[in-house]
């Protein structure tokens, strides 16, 4: 069962939020927060995946598809795979554009942490085909060694003040 942590608003921001017409939601359950979080995830499709190797971080923008809170990424190569062979702990972020000159409180974004699993048609054919179906992917060029990166985050932190979400952390338990 998942749990959420919702920080108390600092007292100095209350009048600022009130003046800006912002009302922060209080989520009574993880399920209530998950609905809001899922809306954000579904209206986006690019995450920035961070991996590490030899103490050197690497961040790569990648398109994703969802099955619940499991993220599926299809990729043909790059240094991220070398990093993931060594260390499969990852983080990623997703952000939506906003106009800071128009609305300082318009920033929307998510940070997530978890473990990545990598597999290909050759290494795990059945799992690969199931992932492709979940991604809505049909036919891939056979000459390219596509791999799936599957991430089921342990923790996600989401903020979208304009829509009433102030730095809520979701944890899988």
Structure annotation, total helices: 4
Order of helices and strands: EHHEEEEHEEHEE
The 3D shape can be described as: elongated
- Given as residue ranges, the uncertain stretches (5+ residues, pLDDT < 50) are none
What's the total number of strands? Answer: 9
**Proportion of residues in helical segments:** 10-25%
Radius of gyration over alpha carbons?
18 Å
Structural class, from helix and strand content? alpha+beta
Which fold does the CATH topology refer to?
Pnp Oxidase, Chain A
Strand count, sense and closure of the main sheet? 9 strands, antiparallel
The CATH fourth-level homologous superfamily: Electron Transport, Fmn-binding Protein, Chain A
The CATH architecture is: Roll
Average pLDDT, all residues: 94
Q: What distance separates the N and C termini?
A: 5 Å
Percentage of residues in strands: 35-45%
Q: Mind telling me the CATH class?
A: Mainly Beta
| Quaternary structure type | single chain
Describe the structure in brief.
The chain has 4 helices and 9 strands. It is an alpha+beta fold and 173 residues long.
Describe the structure.
- The chain is α+β, with helices and mostly antiparallel strands and 173 residues long.
- The protein has a single domain, classed as Pnp Oxidase, Chain A (Roll), CATH 2.30.110.
- The protein has 4 helices and 9 strands, in the order βααββββαββαββ.
- Strands 1, 2, 3, 4, 5, 6, 7, 8 and 9 form a 9-stranded antiparallel β-sheet that branches.
- The radius of gyration is 18 Å and the shape is elongated.
Record keyword descriptors for this entry:
173 residues; alpha+beta; Pnp Oxidase, Chain A; 4 helices; 22% helix
């Amino acid at each position: 069962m998942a749990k959420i942590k919702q920080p108390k608003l600092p007292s100095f921001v209350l009048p600022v939020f009130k003046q800006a017409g912002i009302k922060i939601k209080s989520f009574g359950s993880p399920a209530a927060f998950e609905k809001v979080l899922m809306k954000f995830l579904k209206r986006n499709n690019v995450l920035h995946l961070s991996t590490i190797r030899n103490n050197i971080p690497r961040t790569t923008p990648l398109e994703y598809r969802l099955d619940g809170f499991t993220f599926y990424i299809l990729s043909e190569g790059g240094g991220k795979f070398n990093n993931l062979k060594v260390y499969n702990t990852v983080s990623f972020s997703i952000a939506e554009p906003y106009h800071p000159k128009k609305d300082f409180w318009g920033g929307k974004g998510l940070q997530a942490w978890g473990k990545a699993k990598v597999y290909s048609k050759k290494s795990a054919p059945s799992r690969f085909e199931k992932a492709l179906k979940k991604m809505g992917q049909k036919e891939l060029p056979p000459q390219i060694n596509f791999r799936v990166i599957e991430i089921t985050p342990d923790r996600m932190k989401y903020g979208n003040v304009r829509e009433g979400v102030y730095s809520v952390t979701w944890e899988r338990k």
